[in-house]
Prior knowledge:
mainly alpha, single chain, 264 residues
Amino acid sequence: MTERKPNLFERVGATTFDLFHNTFYAFGFFWNVLGETFRFRSRSRVSTQVLVMQILFTGVNALFIITLIAVSLGTVIIFYGNQITTLVSTNFVYTILITVITRELGPLLTAFIVMARSGVAIATEISSMVVTHEIEAYLAVGINPISYLVVPRFLGVTLSMVALNLYFNLSGLAASYLVAQFFHPIPANEYFGQLMTQLTPTAVASSVVKSLAFGFVISMVSTLNGFRAQQSTTEIPIIVIRAVGQGFALLIVVNILITLVFPR
């Protein structure tokens, strides 16, 4: 006897149910993480060590690639900006530098790098721990996996995102100054003074809020998907790919929403 295939309404209903289920599960997971975060300072030194190692991996070990991309972006902006207008006679290039590096591409590119490195690592690590029953071992000895595994990674990724975003801005703007000397030599105080006139409080607030929100998205998506592993190691690559896809999509959506909230 052949199995009956579900009709269109059944498929739509199942998809809708799964969407609501996953949404409520994600909100519950976030609420649990938030509660454990406020109690993090009372945890053992082991959790603090996990936090330090997460900052080391996410922040310090990513400095090279962050520097490379920031310098490349600053160089490209100055190179093409010089072909459009004269650097010393208009604020156009300074506006582009602040808008692209500080407000838009700086935070987003940094978030993509962190998602591709730390997000993949976190999702892989936690899903592997679920499959190998390490999570059950933590629960058996009275250790809360949320407070021990998720909270240090949540704090570590978020703090690292803020620091890396600031570093990206400094590297990109410094590289743009060095490249500008090859086209129109200009004193450093005049160059960075012009940049500061374009660096409005709104631009700073937008950049900081984006880095905080991106750190939250990366850590939550990675850990949440990691805990959704079941029994087989073959699930791990699927979970990691799903986490990366969801992470990139949410980062783009959050970036658009924050840009709309902080108009120029």
